[in-house]
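Good morning C.,

I know you're traveling, so I'll keep this short. The sequence:
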Amino acid sequence: MRSGGVRAEFAGRPVGQQPSPLSGKRIAFIGCGVMAEAMAAALLRTGSVSVHQLTGGEPNARRRQELVARLGLETVPDNAAAASEADLVVLSVKPQTLDAAMRDLAGRLRAEQVVLSIVAGATIERLQSGLRHERVVRSMPNTPAQIGYGATVWCPAPAVTTEDERLVRTVLEAMGLAIRVDNEDFVDMATALSGTGPAYVFLIMEALIDAGVHLGFSRSVAEQLVQQTILGSVLFAQETGKHPAELRNMVTTPGGTSAAALYEMERGGLRTVIARAVWAAYRRAKELGAGKPNGGPSDL
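The C-alpha cells, ready to paste straight into the viewer:
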C-alpha cells in the first residue's frame, strides 16, 4: 500500500521525472537531530543528492559518529565551517539553542546562500535579524517525513528567488507533501496541526490499543488491528475524497455499535479537547517565536 499512486500523491512530483534542482548543490545541516537525519535520508533515498553533497554541524561527538555509521554523512563540530561551502543551509536545531546557532553564523553567510529553517516558532524576521541574512525560508515538517510521508508547510522571505524556491521545494518534497504559503502565520498553524499532529494520532492509537487489551486482546493483536484501521481509514478517505463527516455516517448505523461509541465520545467532549489541544500548540509556537523557550513544554 506504500507504493505506486499513493506514494506519488504524498511525494508531490514523481522522482526522476526531471533533473533535480539540487544537482551539484551542497546542503549543510546546522544541528543534526532526528529531523535533520530524516531530511538527509530522504534526499539520499530519492536520489536527489549524493552523500558527498551533504554535511552537518553537530557539537556532539557521539551523534556525529552515529550519522557517519548510518548515512555516511560528513559532520563537523563547528557550525560556521559546516555552512561555509553550502548552497542551502538547513537550520535544524532545537528552539532553545537557536540563538547560539545564529550567533555562530551571523555575518558569515554569503549573500547567495539560502537558509531553510525547520525550527518551531522561529519567525522570518527573527531569523533574518539573528543571522544578518535576507534569503530565509521558514518551514515546519513532521516526523512521518522520516519514511517519505511527511507534511510540510513553508514560507519564503521576499528576498528568496524563484530558483531558491525550486531548491527548497525539491528538498521538502523528498520528505512528502510540501505546501507553500505566503503568510508565515500559516506555518505556526501548521506547527499546531500537522507538525504536532503525529503526537495526537499516537495518543489516540495508544488509547485504542489499551482499550483493546482491556477487552481481552493480546497487545500484539490490538496494535495490529488499530494500526491497520487507522491506515486503512486514511487511505479510504483519500481514495473517496469524501468529507470525514460523510465517511463517519457511512459506518454509523442508527442504534448500532458505532452510534453508541460516538455518543460517548461526544458526551466526553472529544472534539473540544482536540480543538483546545491544537490551540495550545499554536500559542506555544507563538511563544517560541517570541524567544520564550522556557515558557512551557516544547512541541518539537
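Safe travels,
E.
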